[in-house]
């Protein structure tokens, strides 16, 4: 594999404090962009999330802010604001995650910044778009969007995955990539408005289309759960997923649980509760391991529910080459890389996440600040 950098030469100013922007900036950095992470003088709150590798260097921070250089500044001081504006004058991408209107107080809204750098791709990530100042985290957003009402009887759940946050980070990444491509043709940057709520809604594209279809036809919305598509508890308290949508897979599953009489009842939705109970009783008669031994090498969409530790140790994960390690001054660090492979290019872990303001001096010098000007910024409390 040729170790090239897809985004080499692209400068990103990452002024995001939470997961959506941090994740987007991480991926941009992995593929070669020069990502400059901006923090206030106290640092992002995520630096102190449990557990911490060292003080102010949480494992969250080490993962999500790798491949970024760090600058700490005080936006409320003229010198801090001017420093950020100088960075934006020569940047290709600005990634920010503040509530609507906040950056406008400092002349850092899209309209103002576009005047000094018309080629800039300005990406805002909010909870609910530019018309709402409502605060929220992923759990609030997915609840409002109907996304954690996951089963047919209305039981809600809390996912370990921050779905709308990671999804918005990916939406921001794809939008930035498209805007950079468009800029190659037009020479102009633009404003990208990404929000968690719209992301959570758009991820339900199949459910929404089915709901609208049922409104039109008068049929009852079916949902995703059925006797042939469900999670069942085993004798040892573990679980198996049964995703036998195709009739051939359902038939093999009926043979596995020794219920050939069910083969022709795959679509017998009139007796759905009865069928689910029948399948549940069969799966509950054996341990997860016993089912895995019976399945052996057969492939028909019946698989175990793995713990995260089991998933990381699995052959499936090993064949993805997605887990990486790198030495640093903090010791050996572990990473999970990006999910996409390119035939001619590779993502790399070039540097650990920055300590607070670690590269401020270097970047000030790159921007042409002299020693006296840097001292003045310190005295002002701007850096």
UniProtKB/TrEMBL annotation:
SUPFAM superfamilies: CoA-transferase family III (CaiB/BaiF) (SSF89796). One of its GO terms (molecular function) is transferase activity. InterPro entries: CoA-transferase_III, CoA-Trfase_fam_III, CoA-Trfase_III_dom3_sf, CoA-Trfase_III_dom_1_sf. Keywords: Transferase. Pfam families: CoA_transf_3. This is CoA-transferase family III protein. The lineage of its organism: Bacteria, Bacillati, Bacillota, Negativicutes, Acidaminococcales.
